[in-house]
Structure formats: C-alpha cells, structure tokens
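Exercise 7.
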Amino acid sequence: MVWILLGLVAWGIYFQTYRYGFALDDAIVISENKFVEKGVDGLYSIFANESFTGYFGKQTSYVAGARYRPLSIASFALEYELYKYKPAYSHLINVFLYWICCGLIYFAVRKLFSYRFDREASSLVAFVTAMIFLVHPTHVEAVANIKGRDEIMSTLFAVAALICTLKYHDTRKWIWTWVTGVIFFLALMSKENPITLLIAFPILLYYISGFTWKEAFRYMIPYGVSSLAFILLRVKVIGYLFDTKLKIVDLMNDPFVEMNFIQKWCTILYTVVWYIKLLFVPHPLTHDYYPYHVPIMNPSSPGFLLALATVILSLWIAWKCRKSHSIVTMAILFFYITLSIVSNAIFPVGTFMNERFLFLPSLGFCILLGYYFYTWSQSSRKQLHFLGIGGSLVILLLFSLKSFLRVPAWESGDSLNLSAIGISKNSARINLFTGVTYFHKYESESDQIKKYQDLDIAEKYIDRALEIYPRYSQGHIMKVGVYAEKYKKDNDLVRFLQSIKKSAGMYPELTFTNEFLTYLKKENSNHAELAKFFKEVGYDVLYKKNRNYPFAIQYLKDAQAMDPLDGTVNQMLATVYLDYTSFGKLEPGQVEYLKQQAAALMQSNMKQ
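Solution. The predicted structure, written as tokens, is:
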C-alpha cells in the first residue's frame, strides 16, 4: 500500500515531465556527450575517463577537482543504445528511480525506528518521512532535469546499503556486509557525495536506533573499504583526488575568484544558512545561484551576522540535546556533514549553491519532521495532537503544490531561463542566458516588429549580464552578435563600431568579432570608419591600456591596410614595436626583427 501511495504522488507531480526535452547540463552528460552517443560501445570510455571528457573531447579543469560519476552517465549510454535520444523515456526513468528511492527511504527509516518503536509507530514515522522527502520542492531539479539522475542514483544506492547494514545487524550473516560494500560502491560511482555518509550514517544509527558509537562505526567498515576502492579508482582515472593546482580564473566556474579569503568564508556560511531556509521555506526557487544572485558577504554584512548566529544556535542545540539520543541532534549533524562536500568549504563546486545539492542533506530534515509529526499526533494535548496531524497534512499539501507548479520550469532551456530571471535578477549567467533566449526568439520570429522587439530585449539582458560581470566573455560574444544583427538592419557602421569597441578591446581574440570585421572589410566604403576603429582600439585600448602587444599590432596593421596614407598609424605601430621589444617576452631574433620593422616605418614616414 505504501508503494502505491508513494507512486501515485510521485507520478502525479512528475508525470508531466514526459513531454519535456533536454535542459541545462543535459548536453554535457547526454545529448552532446560523444561517449553516450556510442551506446554500449561507449561504456569503457565512460568508466575510463573524467565525466566531462565525453563532452569536451579531453579532460579539462573548468571546475576544481574534476568529476568522476560514470554510473549515472553509463545509464544514459544504455538508454541511447535502446532508443537513441528520446528525452521522454529518460524523464520517466528519472521519476521511476525517484519513486524507488523514496520507497527505500521508507523501509530504511522504518527499520531504524523499529529499535525504538513498535511496527505501527515506526511505519507511520517512515511513511511521513518518505512522503515529505518525495514532495519536497528542492528535489524538483534532481528529478525534472535528466542530468539530476546522479543525485537520485547515489542516494538510492546509499539508502539501500543502509538497509543491508541493518539486515546484517539483525541476522549476523556476513553476506549482508559484502552486499553493503558493493551497493555503497555503486552509490559512489553515481556521484561522490555519499562518501560523507561514513560519518553521517553512524549518527543515524546512534541517535535513532540506539546503537553504541563503537557498534555504529564498526558497521561502517564495508563503507570505508568501498570508499577507499572508489578513491583509488578515481585517482587512477583522473590523475588526482581533488586539486590539480591549476588556478580557476573564470567567475562562472569559481564564484569566489573576485573575493578575498574573509569574504569567501563569510559567503559560504551565508549559503549554508540559505540552504537551511530552503529546507523549511522552499520559496522562491531557481536553478541559478551564480554571481551575484548570492551577494558577496563581509563580516559586517547583516546577512552574514544572521547566518553566523543561526549556525551557532543550531550547533548549540545539537550539543545540548546530544545525551538524549535526540532526533534534533541527528538532523542537525546529518545536514552539516552531508552538505559539507558541496558547500564550497572543501573545494569550489563551480557555483555558490544549487537546490539539487540538498537532495541527500534533506533526508535528516525529513526524518526530523516525520518523527515529530508522529509523536505530536500521539499526544494527549489537543494542541500538539492537532499540530501533528494538521501540520503534516499542510506541509505535504503545500510542498506537493509547490513542486507540481515548479516542474514546468524544466520543460526546456528557454522555459528554465524565463522562469529563473524573475528570481535571480543579479546573476550574470541567467541574464546572459535570458538574453540568448530572446536572441533565439528574434531569429525565429517572422513578424518584423516583434522580431526587433525581441532583439532589444536580448540586448537589455546581455547588457545587464555585463554590468554584473564586465569580463564575461560569453556576454561580449553575444553583445557583438546583437549589434551585428542591428547593423544588418540599419547599416549604421559608426554605431556598430562604437558599440563593440569595449568588447573588441577586452577580448580581441573573439572569433565572431574578427569574422564580422573581416566581412566589413570587403566593402571599400567601410574602410575609412574601420581605419579609425582599428587605430583607436589598437593603440588607445589594446596597447596603452591593456599592453596587449600582439593584438595591438594586429589591429594597427588592419588600420594601415584600411588607410595606407595615414602616417600616424605608422608612428603608432613603430611605437608598439619598440615597446614590445623592451617589455615583451621575445626571442633575440624577434626583438631584432621588430626593431627593423619600427625603423622601416619611421623611415617611411620621413619620406612622406
């Protein structure tokens, strides 16, 4: 009966995803992953390489520590072998696995409480726990986004391992120890996060089931063996454990690159308490917590001070309750321990936070609510009795409704962007992605008035992204793209060149910019304005401001080609050549060559 109820709710909330396509990071692990596209033939490559290799073509260091979670990606390869790319099936598999995961949570929690309560009581606590976990709105990202399967599979296998541990405790049959180790290894191969359960599971066993600390940690031996095997395999495949010693400089891959040490840790603490808030009040929700939807915190920031007070208070409560085998202590410690690996405290995870990172840490919170809603419902005091029954029903109803309404945001990349922009207004990333969404609308729109309205909206969001993060290279690419489209409409070359001047000076290597400028060079009537543009950007920006000698030379040569009679360009180019020989890192032969070029230019000017 429990399986049926859990299934009805799970499919009732998430069945709508069968109509949805790929979104967000699905391209990395599914739709554009070269190993997945090979189906069964790609399985070896999936297990023998870092998890992003199938997308990028080689192992990269875009995020610290790299990633190794082959089992979830292997499941996508098997799906591709069976029916190629049909996201409807993948979505339905996610819902099915989530249903199984919640069912296993029910059995695990019932067994944990069976050492404290009778069967009926432990079953009720477990049922409420599993239902709250099932309908919690922060889990929508993991279920509705196909890529989130790694969260579901890792938790599913981890909970299954816990059930096997309890079976061993009851039967003393060693087979359950071996099965525990194997299943926990599968959890780690799905995603690395369950390694924190080496500490968190003993807390469950001690505070819920009444095991001794010695007994609880002794049962972790197969988990430890599996973790060691996984770590050795991970190091063998990737080449290191967490740190490559390479410095991440892109704000979109390490949100702390613009912060000092104190700001970083103040901000991390602030996000931890933000997670706590989302457990109790999962609103508003967004998939984008990139800079600077989460603001930079300082020691004097009210947000940080409130977060610090919250953490201190919660740890004090956990300490005060520790002697009574308290469920409160369990929930607090379980949350902090399982969240630690994705909190940025150990290594940067690539973003400030993500709602899917709450998937495993929320389990302790759900057990806490399940336990208290049950115990209150059994109270002889009317107020507590009403709170136990009424409170659980209200929470389940509100969470179910929130989840159901949240799911449609994941229909596509565009729907996700348009949903998030109303929440993450200060995120450079979502402003850019929303701009891209409107740019795509512009490209497909046939009505000319609506078409250019969409382009104007795209420009507004792209400008906002660059206002938040001025060095956002993808933002500059899109900005040049928008103005290129406007130029095609009005042929206003002066406005176009003026508009892209900042982008060209900051990122002169952008392929699209250079290709479009090459296109403009073909028209002789453009040469005069192009000469001014190349001269100004090349000398005033690339040389004088940025000391980017190679591109300064390239731009000044372009100016020279556009207006061969302009002697000032020769003088500028000669100046850059000489300066480059003094301050650039050049071979002796290059230095001599540039000096000769400078001399020739100055001599040419004298003849003119």
